[in-house]
Amino acid sequence: MLQLDEVTVRFGATTAVDDVTLSLDEGQVLAVLGPSGCGKSTLLRAVAGLERLDAGSVRWRERDLRGVPTHERGFALMFQDGQLFAHASVADNIGYALRLRRLGVAERRRRVDELLELVGLPGYGARRPATLSGGEQQRVALARSLAADPGLLLLDEPLSALDRSLRERLAGDLREILVTTGTTAVLVTHDHDEAFTIADRMAVMLAGQVVQEGTTAEVWRAP
Ligand code: ADP
Ligand code: ADP
User: Fold this and answer.
1) What is d(CA 60, CA 180) in angstroms, rounded to the nearest whole number?
2) Does ligand 2 have an atom closer than 6 angstroms to the CB of 112?
């Protein structure tokens, strides 16, 4: 379980995240929804260990993450721009995380193929990121995030750079991939439809605070 208790993050006079308490069961996807500037990214970055907390705590599997650096949290992060390594092949981009885990060549290749299949890009291993469309690049970025078998996947507006029809298609695929792999994820988005498609639960933020929280169906119906 991911548990946030009374989390506050300030930047000078700005309180970006204001006393947020939230929890998420494993295997579930939480969308953090709200207008630009409401504190969604800061909240996600706090979970990742990229922002220091001014108050409160973040716990994962009962462990308080205070003082645990980002790379030791075992989470994967994916952003709007997937930030692929431009000079490496698609397979190497995905395999990088596996190399860190010291998997052998054959096992690594098998796992890369499996991930490419999962994200709908079978046979793309030898391509360079620059030869892929924006949507394909985000699929590769997702495969790379999943390669490390993250306990928790943190997604910050992963589809926002794509055009509307592609975004809708990829949102459906992303939902399916998260469910198939049983991945626990927090998705930051300003797009209500996207949140509804991808997530099990929603937390709606306004000016740093969570003003509504529940299953997607509960929040969807609320006035
Ligand atoms: P969102 O992701 O919902 O667009 P952010 O978390 O990026 O919102 O920002 C929340 C508030 O915190 C905004 O007022 C923003 O200007 C401010 N903020 C975010 N990051 C910083 C930073 N590094 N330094 C100063 N202010 C920041
Ligand atoms: P420092 O060693 O600079 O005082 P901390 O030990 O307070 O830093 O925090 C180290 C990292 O852990 C930071 O990246 C911060 O975002 C994160 N962090 C701090 N407090 C907590 C907390 N209560 N729960 C989860 N993460 C925290």
Assistant:
1) 22
2) no
